[in-house]
Design goal:
The structure is a single chain. This protein has helices at residues 3-18, 25-32, 36-40, 46-65, 75-90, 102-113, 115-141, 151-172, 175-190. The chain is mainly α. The protein has a domain at 57-190: Orthogonal Bundle (Tetracycline Repressor, domain 2), CATH 1.10.357.10. Helix 4 (46-65) crosses helix 5 (75-90) and helix 8 runs antiparallel to helix 9 (175-190). The model has no long low-confidence stretch (mean pLDDT 96).
């Protein structure tokens, strides 16, 4: 693995555990087994590294959570698969995200301290919510949902449930509670189906 990739991967783990502000440059250097020169040869600043780590986290998120969605025909089933992927392929990844979901960590930590960085994280949240709504809108258009379903409201419920599950799972690591919560959310979605 190249040094740049090592720095990004080790920083991703550290930021997941400690946050951006609480992770020192020395923490990163030690974890990546490099020097300041090795670091600055690839990144002009810790903030520049943040953007690379965020890009890597987004890539991992898409790979894990969107896996198989293109192979599913029904749009509501795409939403359900997204939730199962979130439960099985993303949240439990203690190797990449030992402290839990990096996006939640960044959103909580950076909101007041570094709003320009928090805005980058918020773009992902906005995109996720829009993607869920698009899938639900298509489910409604194709006759998969009851006529009175408000896709905007349901999108909010799903999105906020996903965020809440991230926080809950990062604190207690309870697979049982995670399974229960996702299954309850899927059960709710099934009641909207025609």
């Amino acid at each position: 693995m190249l040094l740049k990739e090592t720095i990004i991967n080790e920083s991703l783990k550290l930021f997941s555990l400690k946050g951006f502000a609480s992770t020192s440059l020395q923490d990163i250097l030690t974890a990546a087994n490099t020097s300041k020169g090795g670091f600055y040869n690839h990144f002009p600043s810790k903030e520049a590294l943040f953007h690379h780590v965020l890009d890597e986290a987004r890539t991992i998120w898409r790979d894990r959570n969107l896996n198989g969605l293109d192979e599913v025909d029904r749009h509501l089933d795409k939403v359900i698969l997204l939730l199962h992927n979130y439960k099985e392929r993303y949240l439990p990844d203690a190797e990449k995200f030992p402290g839990g979901c990096l996006f939640i960590m960044f959103a909580v930590e950076l909101g007041d301290q570094r709003p320009h960085l928090s805005e980058e994280v918020q773009k992902g949240f906005v995109g996720l919510k829009a993607m869920i709504k698009r899938m639900l809108d298509r489910a409604g258009e194709s006759g998969e949902l009851k006529a009175d379903v408000n896709t905007g409201e349901i999108s909010e419920i799903i999105f906020n449930s996903m965020l809440g599950l991230s926080v809950s799972f990062s604190t207690d690591k309870s697979v049982e509670k995670l399974n229960f919560s996702i299954n309850a959310l899927v059960g709710f979605l099934e009641t909207l189906r025609i």
